[in-house]
Structure to design on (231 residues):
């Protein structure tokens, strides 16, 4: 729910929150699960990863999916944080470049996605006051295709993908690359994402504001919070 998401941005009294927002210059959005939510596309990407691990290990897709699930659970138990498909594939001996080559070759986002004018208006409104960037674990080909399909291409000053560092979120070196590329200090940035441990925990630890949003409905109130007006 939006109120729960806002808790990550506003743990301060209103005066302190206003001071925090007054320092913001850049909004950094995750892409998948944040600017759009589509479970069917998510499943297609997941099963593509399972096919890759299946080929790598010489096992069937179902066994590969079970292995990835067990690996993610083990990594999460060891770290205390959620784990991603990318980290599971790396742990199983996979190569991120080959994994993302398969994602790009085998995934067809146009089968699942369409424009959401609410998100477009939101970004246009926010872009009138802040620099907008994307920081995603996705590859460049799929990122560009998805942005075109949902109608947000051209609305961002910077688009950073896994290909900029080949270090999946959360990673401190990759995050430093984000700050350096957008030319902002951590306290000048607000990060928006749908997975706290993957997208937001590390930026928050470095001093950035964060906003958790797991649906478009949770994302839209960001405009009111930042602009004190509704779309």
């Amino acid at each position: 729910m939006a109120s729960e998401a806002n808790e990550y941005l506003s743990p301060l009294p209103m005066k302190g929150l206003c001071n925090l927002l007054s320092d913001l210059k850049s909004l950094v959005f995750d892409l998948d699960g944040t600017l759009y939510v589509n479970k069917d596309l998510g499943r297609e990407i997941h099963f593509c990863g399972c096919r890759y691990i299946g080929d790598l290990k010489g096992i069937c897709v179902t066994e590969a999916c079970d292995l990835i699930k067990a690996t993610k659970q083990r990594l999460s138990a060891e770290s205390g944080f959620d784990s991603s498909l990318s980290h599971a594939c790396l742990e199983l001996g996979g190569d991120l470049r080959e994994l993302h080559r398969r994602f790009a070759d085998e995934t067809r986002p146009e089968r699942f996605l369409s424009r959401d004018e609410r998100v477009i208006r939101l970004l246009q409104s926010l872009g009138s006051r802040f620099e907008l960037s994307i920081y995603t674990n996705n590859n460049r080909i799929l990122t560009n295709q998805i942005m075109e399909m949902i109608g947000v291409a051209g609305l961002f000053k910077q688009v950073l993908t896994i290909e900029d560092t080949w270090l999946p979120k959360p990673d401190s070196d990759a995050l430093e690359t984000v700050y350096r590329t957008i030319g902002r200090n951590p306290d000048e940035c607000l990060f928006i994402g749908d997975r706290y441990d993957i997208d937001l925990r590390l930026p928050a630890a470095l001093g950035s504001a964060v906003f958790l949003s797991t649906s478009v409905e949770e994302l839209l109130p960001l405009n009111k919070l930042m602009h004190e007006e509704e779309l």
In short: Residues 83 and 226 are 30 Å apart (CA to CA). Residues 2-38+114-227 form a domain with the Rossmann fold fold (CATH 3.40.50.1000). The first strand starts at residue 26 and ends at 29. The chain has two domains: 2-38+114-227, 39-110.
